[in-house]
Amino acid sequence: MSYAVIKTGGKQYRVQQGDVLRVELLNAEEGAAFTFDQVLLVGAGESITVGAPVVAGATVSATVRKHGRADKVRIIKFRRRKHHKKQQGHRQHFTEVEITGINA
């Protein structure tokens, strides 16, 4: 089974065909095909191709399943004995994609 390491949204992901993963928000419609061109590594069995920094001509194709927002993260800043408390919430946007193929 071949696998690849892709870079998107400032993060790196190890993917195989059929994987479903959540990445940072992508500018694509739901159900549309998307191509990741920043492939850092491609492996198939015992052979591994490492890019410098990316593998030339390698792409990973995926389909966009849905867009959404993650669970709320609460940020609380509290100073004891100072009558100071600050609360803030944050929900990060994400895109869920399914890997359909690895082209090396």
From TrEMBL:
Keywords: Ribonucleoprotein, Ribosomal protein, RNA-binding, rRNA-binding. PROSITE patterns: RIBOSOMAL_L21. It holds the Pfam family Ribosomal_L21p. One of its GO terms (molecular function) is structural constituent of ribosome. GO terms for cellular component: cytoplasm; ribonucleoprotein complex; ribosome. One of its GO terms (biological process) is translation. This protein binds to 23S rRNA in the presence of protein L20. NCBIfam families: L21 (TIGR00061). Belongs to the bacterial ribosomal protein bL21 family. Part of the 50S ribosomal subunit. Contacts protein L20. HAMAP family: Ribosomal_bL21. This is Large ribosomal subunit protein bL21.
